[in-house]
Amino acid sequence: MVFTIKSLSDSHRRFARKRTICAQEKIFMAKRDSTTTDLELKRTEEPSELLRELVAHLRQNRTQLREEWVVRISETRLLTAMTKEEIFAEATSVYDSYVEALETEAFEALQAYARNLSERIIPRGVETHEVVGIVLLLRDVLARSLFAKYQTDFKKLNRILDAYEPAANRIANTVAVGFVQERERVIRQQQEAIRELSTPVLQVRERLLILPIIGVIDPQRARQLTEQLLRGIRTNRAKVVVIDITGVAAMDVTVANHLVQTVEASRLLGATVIVTGLSPEIAQTLVTIGVDLGKMNTVGDLQGGIEQAERLLGYKVASIAEPR
Amino acid sequence: MEVPILKQGAFLIATFQAALSDADLNQLRMGLVQQVVKFRSRAVIVDVTAMDVMDSFASRTLREIAHMIRLRGAETVIVGIQPEVAFAMVQLGLTLEGVATALDLEEGLAYLNEKFKITN
Fold this sequence. Notes:
The structure holds two protein chains of two kinds. Chain A has twelve helices and five strands. Chain A has helices at about 1-30, 35-45, 45-60, 60-75, 85-105, 110-120, 130-150, 155-195, 220-235, 255-270, 280-290, 300-315; strands spanning about 200-205, 210-215, 240-245, 270-275, 295-300. In chain A, strands 1-2-3-4-5 form a five-stranded mixed beta sheet, sandwiched between helices. In chain A, helix 3 (about 45-60) packs across helix 8 (about 155-195), helix 4 (about 60-75) packs across helix 5 (about 85-105) and helix 7 (about 130-150) packs antiparallel against helix 8. Mean pLDDT of chain A is about 80; it is low at about 1-10 and about 20-45. Chain B is of the alpha/beta class. In chain B, about 50% of the residues lie in helices and about 20% in strands. Chain B has four helices and five strands. In chain B, helix 1 (about 20-40) links the parallel strand 2 (about 10-15) and strand 3. In chain B, helix 1 packs parallel to helix 2 (about 55-70). The N and C termini of chain B lie far apart (about 35 Å). The mean pLDDT of chain B is about 90. The chains are: A alpha/beta, B alpha/beta. The interface of A and B includes residues 269, 270 and 295 of A.
C-alpha cells in the first residue's frame, strides 16, 4: 500500500517535472540560442550525473545494443532500400552520435550528422517514416536495456528515465527535423532547377519559332511559357510558331486550357501556332475539354510541324545533290 | 479623344492614340463604316499598339467593326495587340474569332498587299 502511494506521488512528481521541462523547452525554443545553458545546468545538476551513468552503460553495452537495434530494424522492415552492411555501418555511427548527444547534450553535431545522412539516403528512396522509425526504435531498445539493468531498483530506474526520456525525445525530434529540412531543401533545389530548365524559344528560320516543351507543366510553368512565347513572337516578329510537346507525357485540364489560350493569344499577335507531338493522353484531355479543333493546328511530329511551317512561310526545301 | 482615320491607298488606317472611352469607340465604329464605302476602300487596319488595357466593350466593338465592315464589302485587320493584352483577352474569352490579326502595322499592310495581289 505504502509502495503504491509512493509510486503514485513519484509519478506525480515526474509529471510535474515533465511540465517544467516542457516550459523550459518553450523558453529554449523562444530564445533558440545558447542563453539557456544556465537554466539547463541548474535543471540537470542531478540528472547530469545520471546521464553520465547512463552513457557509461550505453558505451559498455555498445556492441550488444547496436546489434539488437539492427535486428529490430530488419524485423520491422525499415530501410529496405539499403543492404545489411550499410544498415550496420549507419547504425554504428548513429548509435555513437546518439550516445554522444546524450552525453554532451549538444545537438548540433547530431543535427549535422542527420542532415548528412539524409543527403546520402534520400536519393535512394528512404522515407521520412523510416528515419523517424529507426531513431524511435533505438530509443526503445535503449530504454529496454535500462529497464533490464535497473529492474531491481524502481526509484533509480525512474530517475534515470527522467533524465533519459527528454534527451532521447529531443534527439528523435532533432533527427526528424533534420531529415525533413534536408528533404525540403532538395525539393526547393529541384524546383529551382526545373524553373531554370524552363523552355527556350528558338528561332530556326526567319519568322519561324520553335518552343520545345519537356517535362511536367504545372500552372506556374505554363504561365511562364506563355509569357516567353508571346514576347518571343514580338521580338522575333514571328509568323509561325511550332510548339513541340513530345516530351510532355500528360497534362491536366487547367494546363490544356492554358495551351489552347496560348494558341489563341498568339493568333491575336498575328502568329500561327502549330502544335506537334501530342501524346494520346493529351489528345484525350483536349477532346474532353472540348477544344475547338478549328483553332488548333496540330501535326504528328516535330519534323512534320516544321515542314508545314515552312510551307506556310513560303519556303521550299530541296536537296542540291543526290545523297552519296 | 477622337480617333483619326487615315486613307492610305486602297486601305483605311485607324490608330488608337490612348485608352478610349466607350463614346469614342462608338464614334470610331460609325466613322469607319461610313468612310469605307465613301472611299471605296478594300480594307481597314485598326492599330491598337497604344492600348495596354482592352476591356470587354472595346473588344466587342472591334469585333463588331470587323463584322460590319465585312458586310460593307471590305476586310479588317487588327494590328499591334500587346502580348499581355492578348493573353488577358483570351482568358476573358475575347478571342476576336473570324477577325484577321497581325503583329504591327507593317505586317498588316504586308498581309493585305499579299491578299489583294492574289485576288487581282
